[in-house]
Write a structure and sequence with these properties.
about 30% strand; about 180 residues
Length: about 180
C-alpha cells in the first residue's frame, strides 16, 4: 500500500513538472518570436550588400576580446580567425592557420578583413552571411550556432527553403530555421 502511495505521489510530481516545463517552453518560444518580430522590423530594409559573398560570425567572446570567423563561403574555403581587442578597439590578430593547413592562398587582404569586421561590429549579431544572390542569413542571438533567419532577396511563394538548413516561411521574405 505504501508503495502505491509513493508511486502515485511521484507520478503527480512528474505531471506537475512536465506541465511546468511545457509552460516554460511556450513562454520561451513566445519571447523568441517576439524578439524575431522586433529584429525583422528593425532590419527588414537594411542593405547588407557590403557583405556579399561573405560569412562572419562570433566564435568566442569575453570582456576583453572577440574572436570572429571570417570566410568567403563559396567553394567551402577555410576560415580566418580574427581577434578583436575590445579595450583597444582594433584587430590584434588575423590567424590564417586553417588556410595554411589546407594549402589555400589568402583570399582576403588584411584591409578586407578589417573592413568586414568593422562593418559587422555595427550590428549586434552573432552571425551574418550574404550569398551571391544577396540572400541574407542571420543569427542575431546565439554565438556558435547556425543562422536561424533567412531573408530572401526577393519574395517567393515557397513555404520551405533549403539552403544548407531547412527554413520555413515566417513573413514577407523572411524564413525561420526549423
Amino acid at each position: 500500500m505504501i508503495m502505491i502511495k509513493v508511486l502515485s505521489i511521484l507520478l503527480q510530481a512528474f505531471v506537475l513538472f512536465s506541465c511546468n516545463q511545457n509552460s516554460n517552453d511556450n513562454n520561451f518560444i513566445k519571447k523568441r518570436m517576439s524578439e524575431i518580430d522586433i529584429f525583422i522590423a528593425k532590419y527588414s530594409d537594411t542593405d547588407f550588400s557590403e557583405f556579399k559573398n561573405s560569412f562572419i560570425a562570433i566564435r568566442q567572446k569575453d570582456r576583453n576580446e572577440v574572436i570572429y570567423l571570417v570566410q568567403r563561403p563559396e567553394n567551402n574555403l577555410p576560415v580566418y580567425f580574427v581577434t578583436y581587442d575590445l579595450q583597444k578597439k582594433n584587430i590584434t590578430d588575423i590567424n590564417r592557420s586553417m588556410l595554411e593547413k589546407n594549402g589555400v592562398e589568402d583570399y582576403y587582404t588584411d584591409e578586407d578583413i578589417v573592413n568586414l569586421v568593422n562593418l559587422f561590429r555595427k550590428y549586434d549579431f552573432a552571425l551574418l552571411q550574404v550569398d551571391n544572390d544577396n540572400n541574407v542569413f542571420i543569427n542575431p542571438f546565439e554565438i556558435n550556432s547556425p543562422a536561424i533567419l533567412l531573408r530572401l532577396n526577393s519574395e517567393t511563394n515557397e513555404k520551405t527553403i533549403k539552403k544548407g538548413y531547412v527554413y520555413t516561411h515566417y513573413k514577407n521574405n523572411w524564413y525561420v530555421r526549423k
